[in-house]
Specification:
The protein is an alpha+beta fold. It is built from nine helices and ten strands. The chain has a five-stranded antiparallel β-sheet, sandwiched between helices. Strands 6-7-8-10-9 form a five-stranded mixed β-barrel. Strand 2 and strand 3 form a beta hairpin. The longest helix is centred in the first third of the chain and has 25 residues. The N and C termini lie far apart (56 Å).
């Protein structure tokens, strides 16, 4: 859908209604200036369309992802502007999750290229009413960064597919069985393995407001959302994402890996194993009985044993932990 055109069409419809009403009043011998109260609803609708809807519509048409937080404390009341710390925190959390999904993608995981200028997302919206828009980087790069972005560039593909899976995961949470939708999209896209999907589910779960004072839900739209839809995700969808994360399974092939334990989300029992010889970080799913160990061994070297999914080079990508033991 062309959201800008859709919004302009609505505005034209309101203007047309005002014109027709003015003609009717004049034909009946009335004075429009004395009947201004008849137009209050029309002018309020125009204010909503031009001041509120239009900036969002433009962002939806230009962005790969747009997030708009909705609640009683946003854009209304005696203090319509959010505190800087809240705006900064939410904006930073969104970007951090997008980067985390991209860095989980095999193209990044198998590369020594860090997140840098040309590979970073572009900002299309950063509104005080907690509206944020992001767009994929242009498909070219600069000599200074030694990075040539394009449709076949592995890093560009990693960023592109990461944003796409975020949109698909967000849409899937509207369904009772999100896994069917996610798996249908990932089929034929070998890079979107369990590790990437797990990271995307976690990212969307964190983006959805949970126990966030004055915020009820987040509206998500943009080119990455299937069928040009605009979604509303709230507490029920947060719970659905939590259930989907808990249901992630991997093959039965065993693996033993030594690395540094770095917790990601104790609420969904996830950590990363970093500092592994010759390997990028590995996402791990642990059991509740491991929680105390994970908490006490943060940033310490451990050995993890469990069932794993591997990449085409047979490097572990995602491990369901069975045992963890200290190494230092």
């Amino acid at each position: 859908m062309n959201w800008t055109k859709h919004t302009l069409d609505k505005a034209r419809s309101v203007h047309s209604a005002i014109t027709d009403l003015l003609k009717f009043i004049s034909s009946e011998g009335g004075d429009p200036d004395e009947l201004v109260h008849l137009f209050e609803g029309h002018y309020a609708a125009l204010d909503d369309l031009y001041l509120d809807r239009m900036p969002i519509a433009v962002a939806l048409d230009e962005s790969d992802l747009v997030l708009r937080y909705v609640g009683p404390q946003i854009g209304e009341g005696p203090s319509p502007f959010p505190r800087f710390t809240r705006f900064h925190r939410i904006f930073g959390d969104i970007h951090k999750e997008m980067v985390r999904v991209a860095k989980t993608h095999p193209n990044y995981a198998c590369s020594d290229i860090d997140w840098r200028g040309d590979a970073d997302l572009r900002i299309t919206a950063a509104d005080l009413r907690l509206i944020f828009g992001f767009k994929l980087p242009a498909t070219y790069g600069s000599d200074s960064n030694r990075l040539r972005l394009g449709s076949s560039d592995p890093i560009f593909v990693a960023v592109k597919e990461s944003i796409e899976i975020l949109g698909v995961v967000a849409a899937s949470l509207q369904d009772e069985n999100p896994w069917e939708i996610i798996q249908a999209f990932a089929k034929g896209r070998p890079a979107l393995d369990v590790a990437v999907v797990d990271a995307a589910l976690h990212a969307v779960r964190r983006i959805i407001p949970h126990n966030e004072r004055g915020i009820d839900c987040v509206e998500i739209g943009g080119l990455a959302v299937p069928h040009g839809r605009s979604l509303e995700l709230g507490e029920d969808h947060w719970l659905r994402a939590t259930v989907a994360i808990a249901g992630i399974e991997v093959p039965n092939e065993q693996v033993d890996v030594v690395g540094t334990l770095c917790p990601i989300d104790p609420g969904t029992l996830r950590f990363e194993l970093r500092g592994i010889d010759g390997l990028r970080p590995i996402r791990c799913k642990y059991r509740k009985e491991h929680a105390d160990f994970v908490k006490s061994h943060r940033r310490k070297k451990v050995q993890v044993s469990g069932r794993a999914e591997f990449d085409i080079k047979h490097n572990p990508r995602f491990v369901v932990v069975e045992t963890i033991t200290p190494k230092s």
